[in-house]
Amino acid sequence: MTHGQSEFDPEVLTRLTGAELLWATLVGEGVTEVFGYPGGAILPAYDALRKFPIRHILVRHEQGAAHMADGYARASGKVGVAIATSGPGATNLVTGIATAMMDSIPIVCITGQVSSKVLGTDAFQEIDITGITLPVTKHNFLVSRAEEIAPAIRAAFQIAQSGRPGPVLVDITKDAQQATAIFDFAGAKPRAYAPHPMLHCTDQKLHQAAELIRKAERPVILAGHGILQARAGEQVRNLAERMQIPIGMTLLGLGAFPASHPLNMGMMGMHGESWVNQAIQEADLLIACGMRFDDRVIGTPATYATKAKKIHIEIDPAEINKNIAVDVALVGDLREVLEQLLPLLPGRDGSAWLRLIEASKGTAAVRDIRNLPDSGHLYAAHVMHDLWRITEGRAIVATDVGQHQMWEAQYYHHDFPRTLITSGGLGTMGFALPAGIGAKFACPDREVWVIAGDGGFQMTASELATIAQEKLKINIAVINNGYLGMVRQWQEFFYERNYQSTPLVSPDFVKLADAHGIRGAAVRTRAELENVVNEARAHDGPFLINFMVEQEDSVYPMIPAGRALHEMIRRPDQNPLIETPQDS
Amino acid sequence: MLHTFVAYVEDKPGVLTRVASLFRRLNINIISLTVGRSERTGYSRMTIVAEASDQAGHRIRASLYKLEDVAEVDDISGISAVTRELALIKVAANAENRSGVFELAEVFRARIVDLAPESMMIEITGVESKIEGLIQVLNERENRVLEVCRSGKMTMRRGHHTSRVLRAMGVSAEPSPSDRESNESPSSEEPE
Ligand SMILES: Cc1ncc(C[n+]2csc(CCOP(=O)(O)OP(=O)(O)O)c2C)c(N)n1
Ligand SMILES: [Mg+2]
Prior knowledge:
The structure holds two protein chains of two kinds.
Chain A lengths: L13 E4 H11 L4 E4 L6 H6 L6 E4 L3 H15 L3 E5 L3 H15 L4 E7 L15 H4 L6 E5 L2 H16 L6 E6 H5 L1 E4 L19 H13 L3 E5 L2 H4 L3 H11 L3 E3 L14 E4 L6 H9 L2 E5 L5 H4 L10 E6 L13 E4 L2 H8 L9 H11 L18 H11 L5 E4 L3 H9 L8 E2 L10 H11 L5 E6 H6 L4 H7 L4 E6 L4 H10 L14 H7 L3 E5 L2 H13 L4 E6 L36
Parallel strand pairs in A: 2-3, 2-4, 4-5, 5-7, 6-7, 9-10, 9-12, 10-11, 12-13, 13-14, 15-16, 15-17, 17-18, 18-20, 19-20
Antiparallel strand pairs in A: 1-8
Chain B lengths: L1 E9 L4 H11 L3 E9 L5 E9 L4 H11 L3 E6 L5 E12 L5 H10 L3 E5 L3 E8 L1 H13 L4 E6 L3 E4 L5 H7 L7 H12 L4
Bound molecules: thiamine diphosphate and magnesium ion.
């Protein structure tokens, strides 16, 4: 029996082993898939798995398990679950946990631990994983008694999803898995979730904010990941449309507000659109919605939007005044705050400011690279643009970290929430492939594309075997520029083209796919692109495309780290202030 | 500036690490930290004194509240409160020069709690400056200070006093705790 119905009715109190309690509680929490890798200390749990209706996906490296749980959570909005053994299994999870922490993603990681009798004795494969993960989890538990398993798992789910979401780890000793206890799902319910006591959104604050918005002449909404987390897309849309306020997106916000909406200016920050950054610098009011003024979007605090008053709507009080001092903080759930704010905003004519922004685009907005003459070269930007066009912007795209990630953000226009799965805060190379796998499990009926650089792809390429074993229909685009491209770009700009350790010799990715029984093809020119992409989409199984793109291309515009938003680097050899069609 | 926080935390393993780790991560030095049982069953009370920038108080308090095991955090920097520290001080003293130490203890309202042929132990409670004063005077004498053990600060808000009561006690009137509460969070978000 692989996964039939659970033998255990949560309504009936039954004595179970700790291992059974673990699965029974996960079933009770609505878990249907877990991503994991077995080992000695978690073996009792694996032994009990066959009795429960949970599908276990065997990964090839525990980092992959954490990223899959993460991708699952990002695509679905539900909690993703990863499971690993003690010692090296647990430490391999850490990068994935930290990735989820930085991006506030709700995942629950379960690790086996040596028996409580030998805890602290440096037993075989004993590691202090609750100690190691303390700074990269929202919370963690060390469970050494069977009775504590269900309450810990249930608390972990509550903590992971509530307030500002994040990863939770539950470390369960082997003897706790082997001992027995009464399974009482309802009795294991954690105490009611208590919102952060410093949430603060009074009528007075709301009126202050409304007053600022009504009076603003050049307002900009900064739309962040919190919109997805709080499911506040509609409220942000109402705010923008009613008050005619243009919107700039953070990387993790992409998709939270439709890219094609006339008020959506595009992405802000280091590789954001020039006019978005310029609008922010010229603005007299910023309305930050579920974003945290990351250093990648503000340039430097001292030079950031100096003319603007700032309203910060944010669920985490610790983010208020952290990087940017604000004038009015509405500290609470974004959706609830906006619901209260909207009735205070009657409407407004914002056309003058919108016209000004439109004019500031100049020719920079003329970027229809589709119409560029085919120079015989294949640019990564072409790939992103064409993928967007061919998939009609409807695919779930998991990207890795580097140049291709930025090009994807610039050229794949996300109109739908939860369609971009990317590591923003930690910038974890190797994220795309496992995260894409997680997303596919969350949304089996959706078209999923993994877009990875030739460098990052190799960090977790072993998960190709997971795709093959699980027979997943996932399309993979390797953007092969022969370099650790983003680092090479920094070397080009800031280290006198000293390409130290960035050229990359890679295996033939098509053959690598083939070795896994995965179909593949290489694309070297733009002319071939559409046919191969369509072949991949039509193929009834995973497909890898090795896009051999221009090697020394760079992502423009770029704000050098530590500079102001208006001090961006434009394409060389041209009027630095005007981006021409050739810029793409 | 010096920030003082009073925190009620769950009395279970690892909580101290979580609190300490938070300060470490923010690269803030803890000057003193005292923990002990409180009036609430299952909860310990901590007094944490840390040196950090003026604006850091809000973020530290907000971050402490994000820890699952932390139930309540009060930032009592600059608030009317009673602060005490306990110190045990062992000094070199023999039959010849003991009496001076007794005199000093008298002046500082300290107590002698141990007396050996070559040493004495003084117990003193009070504010930091008082304890430091005693140590300084001892160092100026021939009674060498052998060991000092200090508890770190313990702090408790004063009750709600009218300014008349405070004047009578010789304490300057400060905003009452409730006044401060109501304008604390809001004003903390105005750029300084
Ligand atoms: C795990 C990890 N190691 C190192 C880095 C630093 N880093 C950022 S981008 C990048 C280059 C990525 O190269 P590639 O995957 O080929 O993508 P490209 O930039 O060429 O599109 C590196 C090394 C990182 N982000 N993550
Ligand atoms: Mg590359």
